[in-house]
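Sample intake sheet
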Amino acid sequence: MAILDKFSLKGRVAIVTAGAGPQFGQSVSAALAEAGATLITASRSLAANEEYAESLKALGYDAHGMAADICDPDSLRKMHRDVKQKFGKVDILVNSALTRDGHGGGFEEQTPETWKRSAEGDFAGLFLMCQLVIPDMVAQKKGSIINISSIYGVVSNDPTIYLGTTMKQPPSYTFVKAGMINFTRYLACYYGKQGVRANCISPGGYANDQPEPFVENYNQRCPIGRMLDHEDIKGAVVFLASDASEYVTGTNMMVDGGWTAL
């Protein structure tokens, strides 16, 4: 097979949780659709997912919006059943959703209840999504799971980049993202011989209208000199979803502009 053909996702069915989200979700969804996959984007707002899917359809891609709440196990099970009934299989799962209202405030402001809310979706929901689709992948002896982690799952946050702002990095976020990376390794080792690959992507900070002092501080520290934008994560997603990475599993790919190299 020619090397560029290995990147094609034609004939594959992909689910992206929070796939209509304005940050990583839309980037991931667009990348998979552009590579030829049948895309299902799912989160709490059915309207938002259908609207984003329609925008991709208008560009000629095969995209569908569904409702699913990462904090509601029954909602996740229903979405998975609907995908199986309509499309017959699941080849790719990208977990990019985070629980709602689960990561506000700094260390002093967060409470045990904050962490419980986070665990409801970020741990239990992530686990259940993997548990639902892995039997499909095992049955067909092929599948790719991609979990969207963060630089803050690898290194601690740098408090100096928040100087001049009221922004604070929530400790629950770091805890969740670090756990996601090792859970990915677990899946890779447990299911590798059954054809299922599991990998992480750890992006750097996403440009999202943050306060100017934060952006300046971030850009000064980052070796590439800017924050991540909509296009930067797309190549990594397609690589890990496709046959171009068929001998890659259990890895955490840094898409961080060199942040963790310092």
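Comment: DSSP finds eight helices and seven strands in the chain. The chain has one domain: 11-261.
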